[in-house]
Description:
This protein is an alpha+beta fold.
Amino acid sequence: MGSSRLAGVPVPVRLGAAVAVALLAAACGSSATSSTSSPSTGNAANAGSSSSSASGVMIKTANSSRGAFLTDGSGRAVYDFLADSKNKSACSGACASAWPPVIVTGQPTAGSGVTASGLSTLTRSDGTKQATYMGRPLYYFAGDTGPGTDKGQGLNGFGHLWWLVTPAGASLTGNVTVSGGSGGTAPASSPSSGGGYGY
């Protein structure tokens, strides 16, 4: 008994270590398998929700002394460019730096005061999707400091006028207060003359 005890000490220790390693490997293997499949399911769900939130860039309305106009979901003003044609942007390069397109990864969603059927997208030359409203490509103005500012209103830049957009899909040309511009922009010379694509 003593000799088997003495001789048996290393054997159970080695055997126990081998069993522990095997159990650990099995546990890791099954844990790796389940964690591999589980995150991919989670990622798919997350991808769906993130795609839905990205595709859900909201366009809504705001009101000011100028009247009602469109903004994004955070209240940042969006503009249209009178050089554009229906569902086609004429603003790229330096123009798109000064007037960044409202880029989406899916269908924009309608907030309060916006006609949902008027929202769509166009594909830009770089392959990105730009939000449109009633066929008008939508842009931000780099000179705006955030929600509640609309310094791009009535500016003349890159060959044409820029206007806030009404909930009806027209250019908001009344009550223009010129606040200067950047990126090749200058104040509109005749605010009341802007107002359409001719469609």
